[in-house]
Amino acid sequence: MLLELNLRNFILIEDIRLAFGEGLNIVTGETGAGKSIILEGLRICLGNRTSKDYLRNPDQKATFEMIYSTPEELFAITREIFPSGRAISRLNGDIVNVDTIERTIGPYLDIYGQRDHFYLLDPNHQQSVIDSFDPMTVTLQAEIAQTVTAYRETEAAMKELISLASSDVETEKTILQELHGLAIDVEADREKEALFARLTHMADIVSGLSEASDTLDASVLDSLERVIRTIALLEDYDPTYHELSSRLESVRLELEDIGMTLRERRRSLDLDESELKALNDRISALHSARRTYQRDLTELVAYQEELRERIAAFDSLAEKRQALEDRSAQLLSLYDDQSHRLRDHRARVFKQLKGGLIESLSRMELPDVALSLEQTPRPGEPRLSGRYQAEILASMNGRDLRPMKDVLSGGEMSRFILALKQVFSQREKTLTMVFDEIDAGISGQTAFEVGRNIKRLSQEKQVIAITHLPQLTAFADVHYQISKADATTLVKRLDASEHTERLALMMSSALSESSIASAKELIERAKQSLNP
Fold it and tell me: How far is the C-alpha of 29 from the C-alpha of 104, rounded, in Å?
């Protein structure tokens, strides 16, 4: 249970400490005194958003401390807000994030605020309430979630397939045909490109080769022949010139060989017109493909394979799409079957829940309530919660069943929520329930019956109730009075005598022997009402 709540430098609060006990803890006070601020402080301890705007003194930090006891462990929670807006959270002295606090302590506390009854008017929340009443619902919802996830994945795959099918496959086929027609041979085509590069300087090369060859033939070799003949004559006079003559002959033979090579090189460049045109066309086609597809020769070959695969995939799209459509239809059928099972299960669960609700409501001056569950099929895409939207319909005094928001008044809604809390009390892990003016909109005997039911609830769990009604206050085990002085919220735990006096003031606005006697009578009546 919640043992202590300490708040410092928080809005109207300078420094307060509340020590709660077992049973029913009542918090009373004038409007604006700060009762709801205390509840907000509790919410902040449990992980609610913080802000530096909460600081009473903007130059000092705000501190929120809570001590909570479970059968297994004692928890100390501290949250601090600094003037910079930075916040630190601690659990048993260790710095933690708020998610850890929520996971650790959150399941033990159930807080109902003044505005929460609007939440229950939402059919989605009503459905969540019904689904949380029976553990089997979780299993059924998990099955639906698995089916919906598979359906969404199948639909996504189909959309991707349709997107592929809508691409310009004919263009891709044309590209493949063009590249296939090029019959790219990377090595051979690179040689042709090298030849083409040489031929771009063919005029200079031919001129150079011709000049070199002609010079050798017409000048160098003729002159060398004369030199050789002259030296040969000298051999007749001196045999030692024979070696020189032999060397000159070797030079002549080498030069003749060079001349032959030059002439062959020159003749190799004598391509006919058709050969030149074919080479030029080939190089132009390759360059055009490179520019168009922004790929080199090796990449163009790989691109052809990529196109073949995509076109082959396109050709099998019809078969794949049919398979996906069949899968989608199967999943939709399964989804509908599972939704029907969940719908029927919800109906059975609501029947159990309804019995407890009507019994509890009858004890709170609502004896003629009729409840029904309407489950409407929702069109459109499958939902994780199933095909059917559940909504609770209510009827008062034999009138037609209608949505709760159209039937229940504020006071009736408060009693309905309290009835829910009572029905769920045995099924939840919750150890502490906090109510902020759950008795709004009721008075008289109805308020007394609500107080008695809250008191009964407090015999099973710790209850903290903020109230302005004496009928509920009369059942208190612990009573705190909240007041405000000089823009500061003050809190006081009342003893038995002070509790009686405060109750008398709540009943008559003035202390007198008569009002105190009435208060004592109400307290005694509250005690007697709990006897079997």
Answer: 31
Q: How far is CA 482 from CA 4, 15, 267, 288, in A?
A: 16, 13, 116, 88
Query: pLDDT by residue for the chain (532 residues), tens digit each?
Result: 999 999 999 988 899 999 999 999 999 988 777 888 888 999 999 988 888 998 999 999 999 999 999 988 999 999 999 999 999 999 999 999 999 999 999 889 988 876 666 777 888 888 988 988 888 999 999 999 999 999 999 999 888 877 766 556 777 788 888 888 888 888 887 887 777 776 666 656 666 666 766 666 657 767 777 777 777 777 777 787 788 878 877 877 777 777 777 677 766 666 555 766 777 788 788 888 888 888 888 888 888 888 888 777 777 777 788 889 999 999 999 999 999 999 999 999 999 999 989 988 888 888 888 999 999 999 889 998 899 999 999 988 888 899 988 888 888 888 888 888 888 877 777 899 999 878 777 888 988 998 999 999 999 899 999 998 999 999 999 999 998 888 888 889 999 999 999 999 999 878 888 999 999 999 999 999 988 6
Is 450:364 a contact under the CB 8 Å cutoff?
A: yes
Query: How far is C-alpha 467 from the geometric centre of its chain's CA atoms?
Result: 40
Token pair listed for 185: 């041979």
Residue with tokens 């060398």: 224
Q: CA 105, CA 73: separation in Å to the nearest integer?
A: 11
Three-state secondary structure call for residue 387: coil
Tokens of 246: 């032999």
**Residue 247 near residue 150 (C-beta atoms within 8 A):** no
**Alpha carbon distance 198, 268 (integer Å):** 12
Three-state DSSP state, 121: coil
Domains identified in the chain and CATH numbers? 1-114+429-493 (3.40.50.300), 169-315 (no CATH)
In sign, the C-alpha dihedral spanning 338, 339, 340, 346 is positive
Residue 432 CB neighbours (<10 A): 20
Note the Cα 511 to chain centre separation in Å: 59
Tokens 């919750």 belong to which residue? 430
- Length in residues, the chain: 532
Could you give the CA distance from residue 433 to residue 177 in angstroms, rounded to a whole number?
Answer: 76
Bridge partners of 75?
Answer: 68
The C-alpha atoms of residue 168 and residue 232 are separated, in whole angstroms, by: 84
User: What's the start-to-end Cα distance of the chain, in Å?
Assistant: 27
Beta bridge partner(s), residue 19: 4
The pTM for the full model equals: 0.67
Determine whether 247 is exposed, middle or buried from the number of CB atoms within 10 Å of its CB (0-12, 13-18, 19+). exposed
